[in-house]
Design brief:
about 70 residues; mainly beta; two-stranded antiparallel sheet; 7 strands; about 0% helix
Length: about 70
């Protein structure tokens, strides 16, 4: 399976794609992601759902990771 992943934000600068931000490394595969106001502060947060990481008792587990948005 997939052992880890990251989400990378890119922007076109007129000649090439340039990295403008990168999430922390998430253990397990990234199953889904979205930009939502997860903490109701008016800013969009990066919400990542990961799966495949070993959970309690050795079985697979899923995790939700929330990275706070900025102005």
């Amino acid at each position: 399976g997939v052992s880890s992943g990251e989400i990378v934000g890119l922007a076109w600068d007129g000649g090439a794609l340039t990295e403008i931000w990168r999430s922390q490394t998430v253990h397990g595969g990234i199953a889904d992601f979205s930009f939502e106001d997860a903490d109701n502060d008016g800013l969009k947060d990066l919400v990542i759902v990961s799966s495949g990481a070993e959970g309690f008792g050795g079985g697979e587990s899923s995790h939700i990771h929330i990275y706070r948005g900025s102005k």
